[in-house]
Specification:
49% of the residues lie in helices and 12% in strands. The chain is of the alpha+beta class.
Length: 345
């Protein structure tokens, strides 16, 4: 997250924050018709949005605060409308004020699926999540929607080398290692680009799902793109914050594949789909390592980098299946793993 430039006016950020807090409470009370309403922080979005639980005698709601100068709420609203039109369970908006950047929404409760899923209930929760994912993937991406294409893949590849290898681990790749990494990244990108395209959430994981009766409800959907068909499925089962045994992940991927075929989602035969999912998983894990390192070093959000070993473990599980990606496995053994032993993560 980049720093917000200071305005030339004399108001300090603290003054602006207080003014926004006052406006938020006044708007929530007017929108709900409850002058006694109180607000408590519910969660903070990865961007500039924040969420507040509005409690009163008539029950509770959620207020989204999306300051217009920092994060326009209209793309979120447009994507919510698109998903709802396709039958995806998304938060219901009760009152909206686009100009001020405030929304009054239903309170889905809490916590997220990431906090309640466990070995005993995972099958049922993932079956429900697949139902929502198939609805999402059945929606035709509208004209002008962003593409999970070459530019985005190149950016993702750069995150790993710039932030995780160079900045976090202090690894400067020589010509040979750099060429080997570029070869693997090129193969991963070609795999992603060759897959059938569907509407793609890009962070379809338990942390962004709310376990409600007619759900789970899907959150954090504003960055949907037209992307490779296997991406969201592997994101769901190989989470950034929660790991499962590889054999169980393979079973869930097979279940998704069977249901996707039946639903008319353009998945290839199972063996090809499994390879596509594995390779997209590797591409995603490398990207997230770069993002978590950037959050640590640039943004001061250091708790994410503690999950770096999870992604190395994901790579260790899958890379032996694919000799074509052996240069990455060699780089892990020769450079990355030794460097991680000397770095706090």
């Amino acid at each position: 997250m980049t720093a917000v430039p200071q305005s030339p006016h004399c108001d300090s950020p603290d003054r602006e924050s207080i003014d926004r807090e006052t406006a938020r409470l006044a708007w929530a009370r007017a929108a709900s018709g409850n002058p006694e309403l109180s607000l408590q922080r519910a969660s903070v979005d990865a961007g500039f949005r924040s969420y507040w639980r509005a409690s009163g005698a008539a029950g509770s709601h959620i207020v989204m605060d999306s300051p217009p100068a920092l994060e326009d709420v209209r793309p979120w609203l447009r994507m919510r409308e698109l998903l709802e039109g396709g039958g995806v369970r998304v938060p219901q908006v009760l009152v909206e004020d686009v100009e001020s950047g405030f929304l009054l929404m239903e309170d889905l409760g809490g916590p997220t699926l990431a906090k309640v899923i466990d070995d005993a209930n995972a099958d049922a929760h993932f079956a429900a999540a697949i139902t929502q994912l198939l609805k999402l993937q059945a929606i035709v991406p509208p004209p002008g929607m962003g593409e999970f294409g070459e530019a985005l893949l190149q950016r993702d590849a750069g995150l790993f080398e710039e932030w995780f290898l160079r900045r976090h681990l202090g690894i400067a790749l020589g010509c040979g290692d750099a060429e080997h990494l570029q070869l693997v990244q090129r193969r991963l990108m070609d795999n992603a680009l060759s897959q059938a395209r569907v509407l793609t959430h890009r962070d379809f994981m338990p942390r962004n799902l709310m376990p409600v009766a007619d759900g789970p409800a899907v959150l954090d959907f504003q960055d949907c793109v037209s992307g490779p068909v296997a991406y969201d499925a592997v994101s769901l089962f190989k989470d950034a914050f929660l790991s499962w045994p590889l054999a169980r992940v393979d079973e869930w991927l097979a279940q998704y594949h069977a249901r996707a075929l039946a639903a008319g989602v353009p998945v290839p035969p199972l063996a090809q789909f499994r390879r596509d999912a594995d390779w997209l998983g590797i591409q995603r894990h490398l990207k997230i390592l770069g993002i978590f390192a950037r959050l640590h070093h640039r943004d001061g959000k250091s708790h994410y980098i503690a999950d770096a070993p999870r992604f190395i473990a994901y790579l260790d599980e899958v890379l032996p299946r694919y000799p074509e990606l052996s240069p990455l496995r060699d780089l892990l053994d020769s450079r990355i793993r030794p460097a991680m032993t000397g770095v706090d993560a």
